[in-house]
Design goal:
Length: 236
């Protein structure tokens, strides 16, 4: 597993020592991301090799994983993923295991990209968090809140969006931004230093919802490049 190399001066991230601490520790005092740093047993690369080729995002169920012809190390990796999924389900969450060969891209070119490769925050109408762990392949990236600016707050971008909207900068325009998720996407400032969530670590990150006590965590999916192995991801 990759070492977790977090910015030493960034106070919005809290490390925890167990799953139960990850569950029990509320977001507060500006902390908007918590990480259970782990070195996992097993050979996740063998699992990926046995899954074979594919395209897009393939959801993996327990039956398919247990049917793979892997050795003891591959079996251990499968056990880890299924255990993580079970722990989250016991908390009434809905975790999904995915093998990601590639992500869909925005089909329409516009002033704000809204695919997962763009830095963004997750949103909800009720209190909610995002949970994720990359077991194999490139990991998600995080952008410090103080090194980011909402794309819709950029004057040039906002002007383009107003032209697309065809109206005034009012409540209807803000509803238009929300409808298309434009207001959830961010640009890295020139001095920004994005960092990786790493492989094997279980993260709980804050979403944007009414009344949230902390700002949401800004993140993005890693680029999927030709020749790279697919990514094994747990997300809820």
């Amino acid at each position: 597993m990759t070492l977790l190399n977090l910015p030493p001066d960034y106070s919005r991230i809290r490390r925890v020592q167990s799953f139960f601490e990850l569950v029990a520790t509320s977001f507060a005092d500006s902390v908007n991301a918590q990480c259970w740093e782990r070195t996992l047993p097993g050979d996740f690369g063998e699992v990926v090799a046995q899954l074979g080729g594919g395209e897009g995002i393939v959801t993996l169920d327990e039956k398919r994983l247990r049917a793979l012809k892997v050795n003891a190390a591959g079996r251990a990796a499968i056990g880890v993923m299924l255990k993580d999924q079970r722990l989250l389900r016991e908390r009434e969450l809905d975790p999904v295991l995915n093998c990601i060969y590639d992500y869909p891209r925005d089909k329409e070119l516009g002033p704000v990209s809204t695919d997962v490769f763009s830095f963004h925050v997750d949103s909800a109408q009720v209190p909610a968090d995002t949970w994720l762990c990359t077991y194999h392949g490139p990991a998600s990236e995080c952008l410090r809140n103080d090194e980011a600016a909402r794309r819709v707050d950029c004057c040039e971008t906002r002007t383009e969006l107003l032209q697309q909207f065809g109206g005034e900068d009012n409540d209807d325009f803000r509803a238009f931004l929300a409808e298309h998720c434009y207001d959830l996407h961010y640009a890295a400032l020139p001095q920004a230093r994005p960092f990786s969530f790493g492989v094997g670590h279980l993260w709980r990150i804050a979403c944007d919802y009414p009344g949230s006590p902390v700002p949401p965590c800004i993140h993005r999916a890693p680029e999927t490049l030709p020749g790279q192995p697919p990514r094994l991801l747990l997300i809820s």
